[in-house]
């Protein structure tokens, strides 16, 4: 593939690919891994299952992947400690189980495989120092976390490359807190003040350190960043070395057109979130120390804890009925399965009744940018708007299937 100016680009994934962001509902890593390889065969990903509790969540996984900086679970969340304890060992065990499941599900697979882990700034914004302050408040701690994460991630990627020898690894740093970090909106543990904003120069340097370490591992063919918060700093991510960026397309406004156009012209590829990540309006992911990080990064309010647990419990209780309704809105049910309670058809979301309508915002953006239509499916992969951990298991499968159908539309009907 080439840019409009004729510069060659690396094909990180096949045209018309769909993938997930990372998280899924459920607690069985092998079943989840097989589901992903079944529903997203062009660009599967390593699954995150926060429903398993501490250590299955985004922050817990990243914290124990980082080398030589053990953590422990406190009432306020993950905290750096002098030596590993039970919580650390449990979380490390969950990572090993996930890699075992990935190896089994990926037997014989050859192609791109996405590996996601929380990035250095989201990790620093969510983990506390031994004395209880945010790691983000200490520049030395943010440097140590980034270096430790880079080393641990490189080690894990080398392990995956050995276990899945046919895979071309794509590394995704999840940075939902990044916009809040550089805007000075991350709250202190007390909630009464905010941590001082991080300048864009140091922010890019820490990201570049981790991305560069990942890109040097044999078997890694691309590195990028996912951020499902508003105001994603695309120029900063490009300077840090990201080759692709994942966005929640439903949060984009025309003010972002110029930045997106410049990024695409510079060779950046996009993972655009267009399929709702939950069938339960207002639902939160399963309770964990990092639950709600993405939403709170958007609002600048810091991690939620007790409210998340209550919301998630209610969401799980309502899952069966809402899954049917959302599936009907997506147009993925046949016959009378598309009808709601009492036989009434669900009229709540006709805008998602077909894959073409789902990707209309992406096609409209592409037309505004003035790029050739045939490039759209090469540059853009389709994803849910964020992780699927807050959805019912049935809806998660339907959402991934809908992502595949929407991605095919970008190939067959890009205009």
SSE topology sketch:
Elements: H1 29-39, H2 58-65, E1 71-74, E2 77-80, H3 86-105, E3 111-118, H4 120-126, H5 139-163, E4 167-174, H6 178-183, H7 200-215, E5 220-227, H8 234-239, E6 244-248, H9 257-265, E7 269-275, H10 293-299, H11 306-317, H12 319-330, H13 355-358, H14 360-369, H15 376-379, E8 380-384, H16 393-412
Helix pairs in contact: 1-3, 2-3, 2-5, 4-5, 5-7, 12-16
Question: What do these coordinates show?
Answer:
β6, α9 (257-265) and β7 (269-275) form a beta-alpha-beta unit. Residues 1-8 and 285-352 have low confidence and may be disordered. With 415 residues, the protein is an alpha/beta fold. 43% of the residues lie in helices and 12% in strands. It has helices at 29-39, 58-65, 86-105, 120-126, 139-163, 178-183, 200-215, 234-239, 257-265, 293-299, 306-317, 319-330, 355-358, 360-369, 376-379, 393-412, and strands at 71-74, 77-80, 111-118, 167-174, 220-227, 244-248, 269-275, 380-384. It starts with 28 loop residues before the first helix and ends with a helix.
How far is the first residue's CA from the last residue's CA?
A: 19 Å
| Morphology call | globular
- Rg over CA atoms: 20 Å
What pattern of helices and strands is seen along the backbone? HHEEHEHHEHHEHEHEHHHHHHEH
Q: Decide which structural class fits the backbone.
A: alpha/beta
Major beta sheet, strand line-up: 3-4-5-6-7-8
**Count of β-strands:** 8
Largest pleated sheet: 6 strands, parallel
Low-pLDDT residue spans: 1-8, 285-352
Strand proportion, as a percent range, falls in 5-15%
Q: Count every helix, treating DSSP H or I runs of 4 or more residues as helices.
A: 16
Mean pLDDT: 84
Helix content estimate: 40-55%
């Amino acid at each position: 593939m080439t840019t409009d100016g004729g510069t060659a680009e690396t094909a990180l994934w096949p045209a018309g690919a769909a993938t997930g962001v990372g998280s899924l509902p459920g607690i069985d890593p092998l079943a989840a891994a097989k589901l992903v390889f079944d529903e997203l065969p062009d660009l599967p990903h390593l699954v995150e299952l926060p429903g398993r509790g501490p250590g299955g969540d985004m922050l817990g996984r990243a914290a124990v992947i980082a080398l030589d900086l053990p953590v422990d679970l406190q009432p306020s969340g993950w905290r750096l400690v002098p030596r590993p304890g039970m919580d650390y060992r449990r979380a490390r065990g969950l990572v090993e189980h996930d890699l075992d499941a990935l190896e089994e599900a990926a037997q014989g697979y050859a192609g791109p495989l996405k590996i996601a882990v929380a990035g250095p700034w989201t990790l620093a914004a969510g983990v506390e120092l031994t004395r209880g302050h945010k790691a983000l408040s200490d520049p030395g701690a943010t440097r140590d976390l980034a270096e430790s994460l880079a080393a641990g991630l490189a080690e894990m990627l080398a392990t995956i490359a050995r276990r899945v020898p046919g895979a071309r690894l794509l590394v995704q740093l999840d940075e939902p807190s990044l916009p809040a970090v550089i805007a000075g909106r991350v709250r202190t543990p007390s909630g009464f003040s905010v941590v001082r904003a991080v300048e864009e120069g140091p922010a890019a340097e820490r990201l570049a350190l981790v991305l560069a370490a990942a890109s040097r591992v044999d078997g890694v063919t691309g590195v990028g960043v996912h951020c499902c918060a508003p105001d994603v700093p695309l120029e900063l991510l490009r300077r840090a070395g990201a080759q692709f960026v994942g966005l929640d397309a439903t949060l984009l406004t025309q003010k972002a057109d110029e930045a997106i156009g410049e990024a695409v012209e510079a060779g950046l590829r996009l993972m655009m979130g267009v399929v709702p990540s939950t069938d339960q309006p207002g639902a939160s992911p399963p309770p964990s120390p990092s639950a709600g990080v993405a939403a709170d990064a958007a609002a600048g309010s810091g991690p939620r804890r007790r409210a998340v647990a209550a919301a998630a419990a209610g969401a799980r209780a309502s899952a069966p009925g809402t899954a049917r309704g959302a599936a009907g809105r997506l147009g993925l049910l046949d016959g009378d399965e598309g009808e709601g309670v009492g036989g009434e058809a669900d009229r709540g979301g006709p805008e998602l009744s077909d894959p073409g309508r789902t990707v209309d915002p992406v096609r409209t953006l592409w037309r505004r940018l003035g790029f050739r239509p045939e490039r759209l499916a090469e540059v853009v992969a389709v994803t849910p708007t964020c992780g699927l951990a807050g959805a019912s298991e049935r809806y998660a499968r339907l959402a991934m299937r809908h992502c595949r159908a929407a991605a095919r539309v970008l190939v067959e009907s890009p205009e």
